[in-house]
Amino acid sequence: MTTGNINVSVENIFPLIKKFLYSDHEIFLRELISNATDATLKLKHLTNIGEAKVDYGNPIIEVKIDKDNNRLHIIDQGIGMTADEVKKYINEVAFSGAEEFLEKYKDSAKDSGIIGHFGLGFYSAFMVADKVEIITKSFKGESAAHWSCDGSPQYNLEATDKTERGTEIILHINEDSKEFLEESKISELLNKYNKFNAIPIKFGTRTETLPKPEDAKEDDPAPTQKVDNIINNTDPAWTKQPADLNDEDYKSFYRELYPMQFEEPLFNIHLNVDYPFNLTGILYFPKLTNEVNLQKDRIQLYQNQVFVTDNVEGIVPEFLTMLKGVIDSPDIPLNVSRSYLQADGNVKKISSYITRKVADKLSSLFNSNREDFEQKWNDIKIVIEYGMLSEEKFFDKAQKFALYPTVDNTYFTFEELKEKVKDNQTDKDGNTVVLYAGNKDTQHSYIAEAKERGYEVLLLDSPIVSHLIQKLETSNEKITFARVDADSLDNLIKKDEEKISKLSDEEKEKLSTVLEEVVPKEKYTVKLEALDSAASPFVITQPEFMRRMKE
Ligand code: ADP
Ligand code: MG
Fold it and tell me: What pLDDT was estimated at residue 317?
């Protein structure tokens, strides 16, 4: 038996770890399962390249609660450790063995999916346990080792008689952390962090109903058997090739990801890149019918199939945070501040890659099935319009597929619209005037009059429409927008000056005395003429600039 001091420069690192390592104590389970997963994947890799001559089999990771003894066990069938390796990898705190492994097998292990790199992962166990034991047997066949430590820098290490390959971690859960002995709590954590873990995780057993045998009688009960309760899907859709997935696969993965989300997504974008950074994922455009879900079911960030966070601010451009789905990238630095994240070169590249992929997908949907795209427009426009305002590159691409619907549900691209109105809707300064309404009902009579004159009237009702208009005006020369109830309609050059009022001179005079009293002159213009066939005998308009000032 060996006793020794854990090699740290600080006198006692554990109080520090407990306090500062992670504000969230629950992540200890994620760290230990990540280590168990790494240990298993390392063994897989070594057997693949012929360096480990053992039967890899179908290894699983088991999580077990022993409530009577206040213990939590995490057991794997991975690579294991010799006593020397325990000394090296466990006792030298902040020495990341995962990094060393990857360094050594740099080329061959690049895609092995090994997770660890913080170096303090294992010690996060001391946030919830006042004693931790490791019982481990290396695939190399040396005798098993038993390490234990009660949270002081002193540890014990002795030989033990474990016969199966792999590692068992035993946590003696401390007084303040009893919740981690509750089945419901561990279930919740496994479901949160490890729902898509690459190695199967067993948590208890469940009863499975078997098919009835051929000769069973009508009311014989179906036979049952106890099977391992595996809590995870080890190959989620985003880890597969897009060519191997169909529409239904994407939809069912969406349901797997958001079991409480009943609305189907509109379409998906499969992300898959390995240079100059590694990133996979699937993003979904949701149907925006339910505002509440916007907040709740957010994009989830994973690293090697382990959940990290659903706060992707700084990684995904802000306008795309309204999307749903998964991003998995080992190249996003964790445990750093958001401002650091935004300055990180890789993260910047990732963000612009995602923007580009989204624009390309929208573009191809538009080109391949415009009718369908038009139908979805109302659900997707907010994201697209917001993107056009916030990302110049996205704006340039979106110019080709962003749609501008008229009050009669004709959808124009901006180019089409310009072409359509350029002859009929020009003002005295030679600008093309784009007319729009914000509300079909309240602006009904203005719309009617404009249509009567043969103008196209757009229906622009997003909350950010005034910003979008400004953007379009500044990036297109000789284009101005005017709302249908603005007086700029009068500046339009009329083709046929056929404006016959329905009112007699006498009626006009009476009416203007009345209107002068009720309509504030400095704000509105009253025009006692309208097209013969229009519904209203007069119109009240407001200068466009005054209206914009109010917004
Ligand atoms: P990291 O995972 O970032 O390397 P950790 O502190 O989580 O850092 O773990 C330190 C090292 O201890 C690992 O790299 C690995 O070599 C070893 N280790 C931890 N858990 C296991 C395990 N279950 N099986 C085998 N080795 C392990
Ligand atoms: Mg680790």
Answer: 92
- Tens digits of per-residue pLDDT, 469-491? 999 999 988 899 988 887 766 66
Q: Kindly indicate whether the ipTM for this predicted assembly is greater than 0.85, answering yes or no.
A: yes
Q: Whose CA is nearest to atom 1 of ligand 1?
A: 116
Which residue, among 404, 359, 416, 415, has the nearest Cα to 377 in the 3D structure?
A: 404
Q: Which helix (H) or strand (E) holds 459?
A: strand 457-459
Angle at 439 between CA 433 and CA 442, to 5 degrees: 110
Asked if residues 321 and 299 have their Cβ atoms less than 8 Å apart, the reply is yes
103-122 pLDDT, tens digit per residue, is 666 666 566 665 555 445 88
* pTM score of the predicted model: 0.83
Contacts of 505 (CB under 8 A, 6+ apart): none
The pair of structure tokens assigned to 463 is: 């909350």
Instruction: State which of 32, 37, 122 you would mutate to test the pocket of ligand 1, scoring each by most atoms of that ligand within 8 A of its C-beta.
Output: 122
Residue 38 Cα to ligand 1 middle (Å): 8
- Measure the CA–CA gap between 420 and 402, rounded to whole angstroms: 16
How many angstroms separate the CA atoms of 225 and 429, rounded? 83
For residues 310 and 345, is the Cβ–Cβ distance under 8 A? no
Please compute Rg for the chain using Cα positions: 33
